[in-house]
Design brief:
The chain is an alpha/beta fold. Helices cover 47% and strands 16% of the residues. The chain contains eleven helices and ten strands. It has helices at 25-41, 64-68, 72-92, 108-114, 132-135, 141-150, 154-162, 169-174, 185-200, 206-216, 218-223; strands spanning 3-7, 10-14, 48-52, 57-59, 97-101, 104-106, 118-122, 128-129, 166-167, 180-182. Strands 1-2-3-5-7-10 form a six-stranded mixed beta sheet, with helices on both faces. It has a four-stranded mixed beta sheet with strand order 4-6-8-9. The N and C termini lie far apart (41 Å).
Length: 238
């Protein structure tokens, strides 16, 4: 359901599924399988990952229509559990990760963006939107920990989770959320690939990179059940 290709040192993972790129169970399984392959083939660290999509949406979050057609909370928990595995895999991946946001990203789709090291977003279309408040849905603990880890200021955090603000690329860059702005969808992916090539060319030790990432976000690593090299959970000292 998702496509994975290797361009030199750069892995390009493109979201599949419906036009909204909803994170259904099938899409989540496909993403997790792709990351398992990348991990198995990228232990040296001399690679990088770009996650992108096509069309109007990067990802509009969980498949709510499917959840509503059955036991709602049970189905939401099923998607949340697979999504937690996805976030955990990205946070522990032994290579740099870049989200190429070529369209709207909302709810779990926005969280998926946050799970990357760098965010490149197109200027001409799309917004970032944490819609849970508008939908009347709570955050799982690991989700809120992810958001807190990646939003750089209390004011921006308030706007993301307590205002459900829709951020354009420029507004998200001003808030410190987006790191690079590109002109359109094609340039967004191209800029993300250029950044990935530069990072992969640094030839960092993958295990060290992953360990430092987890140490940089200790509360997130603990919430995801990730461990450091000694086999103990990484805990916050704050």
């Amino acid at each position: 359901m998702c496509t994975l290709e290797k361009r030199g040192r750069v892995w390009l993972l493109t979201l599949g599924g419906d036009a909204d790129h909803r994170l259904s169970l099938g899409v989540l399984d496909s993403l997790n399988s792709a990351l398992d392959r990348i991990r198995a083939e990228s232990s040296s660290g001399s690679a990088a990952l770009v996650v992108a999509s096509t069309g109007k949406f990067f990802s509009y979050g969980f498949d709510l229509e499917w959840a509503k057609s059955g036991p709602f909370m049970h189905r939401m928990h099923l998607m949340s559990d697979k999504f937690r595995t996805l976030v955990s895999s990205l946070v522990s991946l032994p290579i740099p990760t870049i989200a190429a946001v070529t369209g709207h990203a909302a709810a779990a789709g926005f969280m998926l963006v946050f799970a990357h090291d760098y965010i490149v977003m197109r200027r001409d279309r799309g917004f970032l939107y944490m819609s849970e408040l508008d939908l009347g849905l709570p955050f799982a603990d690991f989700m809120m920990t992810l958001i807190r880890a990646k939003v750089p200021s209390p004011a921006a955090l308030r706007d993301v989770v307590l205002r459900a603000r829709k951020f354009t690329a420029s507004e998200a860059a001003d808030a410190g959320i987006v790191h690079v702005i590109a002109s359109d969808a094609g340039e967004t992916v191209a800029e993300a690939v250029r950044l990935a090539e530069d990072l992969a060319g640094r030839n960092w030790d993958g295990n060290v990179y992953s360990s430092i990432r987890k140490a940089a976000f200790p509360e997130l690593a603990a919430a995801l059940g990730l461990v450091n090299g000694s086999g103990t959970k990484v805990a916050s000292k704050l």
